[in-house]
Design a protein that fits this description.
By secondary structure, this protein is of the alpha+beta class. Helices cover about 30% and strands about 40% of the residues. The chain has a single domain (about 5-130), classed as Nuclear Transport Factor 2, Chain: A (Roll), CATH 3.10.450.
Amino acid sequence: MSQTDVEVVRSAIEAWNRRDAELWLSYAMPDVEWMPAGPAAVDRSVYRGHEEVASGFESVWHTWDVFRLTESYIRDLGESVLWFGHVKIRGATSHVEVDQEFARRFVLRAGKIVTVQAFLTWREALEAVGLAE
């Protein structure tokens, strides 16, 4: 990994917050795989390829009128990047609000996102990569 990959991750998070699927997908390989967690797992648990990922994003953004990610810190693990932060969401119909810790693991190849896996807690993310105590 490199600082460039960390910047790609940050740019993808920014594109998500802007609800710009086209921009987000410009940072991803055509065979990208997205595994959402919790409130983002609206239609399915895995989306593959640009078309499915874009459709999944639209489903999430339709269900939640607020879905904003805020970075706390980021770790470059060499083979992947772990993004730690918080998610603030509000249901489009229910108006229920949630603000909680959230994490995403990004695997990149040639400067493009190949896999994104979301976690509801920072501990889950650390356990997934073998770094939990």
